[in-house]
Amino acid sequence: MSSSVLTALFLFAFVTSITPGPNNTMLLASGVHFGFTRTIPHMLGIGFGFFVLLICVGMGLGTLITGIPMLYLALKIVSGIYLLYIAWKIGSSRTLGEQKETGQVPMTFLQAAAFQWVNPKAWVMAITAMSTYGDPVHPYQRVFLIGAIFALINVPSVSTWAGFGSGLRGWLSDPVRLKWFNITMAILLVVSLWPILE
Q1: What pTM does this model have?
Q2: How many CB atoms lie within 10 A of CB 147?
Q3: Residues in the chain with pLDDT < 50?
Q4: Nearest to 42 by CA among 1, 79, 2, 97
Q5: What's the pLDDT tens digit per position in 26-72?
Q6: Where are the domains of the chain?
Q7: What is the Cα Rg of the chain in Å?
């Protein structure tokens, strides 16, 4: 891989990892509700889950999914329903998750990893990365190189959203502000469904 292509891949990984989407919207909300430290398993789960998804897409799953229209449609429907459910949970929350009696818990490592399989932005990122930067001559080496670059870039990028949310905890301790923040996050999560509509 030439230095210019490698630079472009690093830039693609950074931009797609740090820009708004379901993962980053949920991390921002988690940072507000649970703080940065309790959100770490969520962040690490995103990184691991996306790495596995990316490798599977590079090994042929992406071609299978996009090549069977009914399977691709089913993935879109499941993704959409699950994201609407998460948006409803965030939008209806009215308390910070610092007290055990609220019943709120941060997303676990395994939940965050599994979420990547129904995250429309993750699928778009993975399919685009492999179709743009893959190499038919040395496919497996390139797949793991792309995966390694995303692993290096993804977690530090998404952690900025959790950090920003954690910084807002004090300001959002006001119930009215928290209510409108949660509603806004829910709306943004629904808006992030745009890749499904393409």
Answers
A1: 0.84
A2: 22
A3: 99, 101
A4: 97
A5: 999 999 989 999 999 999 999 999 999 999 999 988 788 878 888 87
A6: 21-31+39-97+105-197
A7: 17
